[in-house]
Amino acid sequence: MLMLPELIVIAAGFIILLLDLFLAEEKKNILGTLAFAGLLIALGRTLFSFGQQGELFGGRFVVDSVAIWFKIIFLLAGMTTVALSWDRLTGKTTDIASRMKHRGEFYTILLFSTAGMMYLISSRDLVTLYISLELSTIPLFVLVAWDRDNPLCGEAGLKYVILGALSSAVLLYGLGILYGLSGSTDLATISQKITHSPALWLSVAMITAGIGFKLTLVPFHMWAADVYQGAPTPVTAHLSVASKAAGMAFIFLLFYRVLGGAFQEWNILFAVLATITMTLGNLVAIIQQNIKRFMAFSAISQAGYLIMGFLGPFPEGLPSMLFYLYAYIFTNLVVFAVIIFYANETGRENIDDYRGLSRTNPIIAGAMMLGLFSLAGIPPLSGFVGKFFLFSVASKAGFHWLVGVAAINSTISLYYYLRIVRQMYIEPTMEDATTLQISPMLAGTIAITTLGAVFFGIIPFFYETINQTVAASDWWSVITATAR
Amino acid sequence: MKKIFLHWGIISGITMFFIMITSVCTAETNLVTLPASPGVGFPILSLMVFSPLLGLLFACLLRNGHGERSAGVATLLSSFVTFALGIYLLLQFDLNHYGFQFVEQVPWIDIFGIQYYLGIDGISLVLVLVAILILPSALAATWSTKEKSWQFQVQTMLLQIGILGSFMALDAILFYTFFEIMLVPLYFMIGIWGGHNRIYATTKFFIYTVFGSLLLLASIIYTGILYHETFGVWSFSIIDWYDLPIPASTQMWLFAGFCLAFAIKAPMFPFHTWLPDAHYEAPTLGSVELAAMLLKLGPYGIIRFVIPLFPDAAHVYVPILIIFGLIGITYGGLVAMVQQKLKKLIAYSSVAHMGYIIIGVFVFNMQGLAGGLIQMINHALVTGALFLCVGMLYQRTKTQEIVDYGGVAHSMPIFACFFLFFSLASIGLPGLNGFVGELMIMLGAARMNIFYAIAAAFGVVIAAVYMLWMYQRVIFGPIKNDMVRNLKDLNLREQLVLIPLAVFTLVLGVYPQPFFDHVNTTLEGYLKQFNAEEFQQQHKFDLAAYWSLKQDK
Amino acid sequence: MIPTQHVLILSAVLFTTGVLGVMLRRNVIVIFMSIELMLNAVNLSFVAFARALDSMTGIIFIFFIIVVAAAEAVVGLSIILSIYRNQKTLNVDEFNWLKW
How far is C1 from chain A (nearest CA, A)? Predict the structure, then answer.
């Protein structure tokens, strides 16, 4: 029963694949509903499994509260992607070029990728870890290259698949060394047997490089801008949240937990990575014109903030990182939902095209503004609270300079987020701008994500819950306690 | 006509309803109150802070189909509600109680011990009172301008929440939250309703202040961590922090972090460059709120955070900061002298006035501190009123250039009277409030070092020159052109706005004792808290001793 | 019996060759072959470790890696195919519509 959410997602994927063969084209709307329903049921099952803790397959598959929190992220991201791609796949967009075909396969592949991510956070073995990582990544290659008649899309897919395969090979080499050093693929055993050695350094470097690709850490971020721009926008949204969360899950399992004991002195590595990631992401974002490229660099800089949560293994670190992940996901999805809405209706993707949106569509512009301000960390939005937590963690770990750097970076980021706000609110309205109709699916997505982005910051219920559940049931604390 | 009454009736009815509901609700949740502090039976501070939400709500609701006036009515009424609550607060305030009153304490983010923690003492009381006086005046003064759209009203209300919250917050993170909330409405006010070069001005303003406040955030976090390391529990409450021993070397950094944020906000001399641009481009109401309330957060933050938390570092930095204050007075005055535009001139005069306040705050004695505080009030009233006057003039003529004017006194005699009155108050004419503040600051400065007082006194001379020269060019002389000839004098509404401000200016100048009664207890306790007298002695420059030393040689 | 170090060195050399191939070659198919070379180098290191540690886990890992490599090749080659249909080229230098 512990694996039920994953099984539901996979079953839904197969049912959609089969139904797609038999259903007539006009009846295929049900596929989207099915995908959404499958994810929703899995989400419900996951939510109800709080407090349950257990393992399957001799400890290879473990469910604890941290895993549940991550699974909720993946399921929410999957559901949002289904909702965001709805209009494009059903052909209801005003802009014909942004429509997408083959919806049966789209949903199947999306669900398989989601299942891969869910397995990833429950894996407690290098083999399952690697397999589930690939299960989550390989479908994404396909999703990125979805629109095969569009040369930009094909190029993005090609770049993503080459660099993705390269990074997974590098990661694998690192895992191989880890296996050779400890003689086991079981994470708990590895953490006990591992000792300091130059080979361990090499292994950590390789793993960091491999997973840095998924997390878009500088200098492994080169693909991000091209892929984000070329991919269909709902897929970009999915990449920017789910793929990043999967990378966080992987790095969390390996570095925060397994190597955590030996890891204290490697904090400096993460501090430096965080510094260059946020700085470069922010500086390059300033000059972007295409909003998807712009969001790519914004996502890069956000990854820099995210890994600040790894700087300390004290009790505040993990809830802070999880909370910022949630805040980031909700806020980022607000922005992407608006981008998708605007591209669906007008086909425009440049920052200058948002001129005067506040006059033609005030509510949507307001949601976008809240999202951007939350990304920039203006209180009392959730982005601010998340940043506050992470800054506290970094400060408590002794990296006061990093907090200063992050503060300066937040100022820079505010400057470029304000560029969009300025286009929407201050610049004169575009000549041909009219009030655009929004589909109920997108309207609902924008409403829910905006509410999340605003209220996670104000109402303490959410992070209190994270804190309590994480403290109550954590696989790692059990493992370390028995080891002692 | 009936319809308007209907609307007003509905608005006030629902207003009252919401106030009752919120007061009951917050009273229920407000479980953890300090028993020692005096207060009233309901959470009056929360009500005050969030009463502008009513105006915001109704401005949104009434935006369509009711004309733009109804949004304005809603916000004005809600600002009156805030004002009434403020008066009640003033009446209930215990003059003899040192410490915070009307305290409200509810946990917010328990993991880090962050609370929703409000309370006021004498220092915040007077600033809050000015804030609630200035807003209705500004709203009424800009009644018939183009800025009356409902979006603008919403920004105004948000700004008011931020201002009131910052003055009342006793938790550092809560303070920071309110501090930042203010920036967004002001960004839009300048950016959307501003003048020609508004995008440059608003971006500059925003980046400047956010840079300062993020350093503030970093410093707050550091202090919080320090508290956690020292006492083993999390707390971001300022009152808890006052007990925190901080090593002198750490204090130096934290002082710099906090002080930079507040110096940018104040603005102190080298960080003032955003102010003239922002003022010049802002719409009238934005300028008034900026000058009257936002700038006060700089000195207020220094009084509330910087000096009590980092006394040892203050010890080292004080001479530098006072010198900066003196430079600000002189430089601001000299630059104001050569300005060609009315609003820029007043903006630079603000820089000079803030220099006085900085000096008053940093001389560490009763005279200086009380003078700094009353000067904060004076500056809010007088500069606010000056910006309102300029706004009224601008609304008629659409020009800020001083050379376009001349002979306004012939066509607008009542305006000329008011303008003269506030200009003289700004210079510091004896009998008006500016004199009291500047005199006390100079007395305080003289107790520390007589040369500070002498240098500051030169600022008054400069102020007289630029203000009176400007006044002469704008108001006196022959009528230059048809534009000035056709000007209409102030109407009843505009006079009604300026009269209360003028009355307060006069009362504070002639009989400031009630003001001192309200702040005295707080300031005495405040100064005792970090041994200000001892401090004072160490920095004291004894002129007589200096002379006798010279003669001995 | 060949010492474990020698096998590991061979694996490292093969891996480096693969990395260099990805970076230097311009044809997409060759780049893909280089990635396969890297994966096989990893396999070799797993074999060496498994033999040295006398454990079967490493061998089992290899089977999974082979399967994943095949899946990756399938997806990669189909993307290459679709892009070749559009562009009639396989030179990575000519895929440059996206850039900053």
Answer: 19
